[in-house]
Amino acid sequence: MTLHHDLHAAGYFFNPRIQYKDNVHNDGEVMRGTMNVITRLARTMNERLDAMAEVERYKMKLGIYGGYDMTYAAQRHTPAEWWIQVNYQQAGTNPLMYVAMRVLSQTTSSSPCERNWSTFSLIHTKIRNRLGVDRLEK
Description:
Number of domains: 1
Order of helices and strands: HHHHHHHHH
Largest sheet: none
Distance between the termini: 18 Å
Structural class: mainly alpha
Shape: elongated
Strand content: under 5%
Radius of gyration: 20 Å
Helix content: 55-70%
């Protein structure tokens, strides 16, 4: 349940390696999260509307997104390099590239996991080793 956030959905959506596979899964949660992230990260209202319109073209692989070169590049380049290439091919006017680059450049952290592990190690010591599973989970 920790990966069901808008930023994770947008990261999934903006990753061209995933989007150019045959079994891509863009359900309502992915699209809703992506639109929420675009709303937050776009700088102006016009940029937001342009990016939302561009989402459909990217999803349906129309125009610049539909060529064989872009499909091949999606498997060969990192997602950031792919989006930079899209922006170059549209002469620096792709409204979706700014949002995609901001989403894909987010750093990851294992601190929530570390917090859980440290809590577990405090509870599960040699003295308390005989706790039952139900009691330990509480």
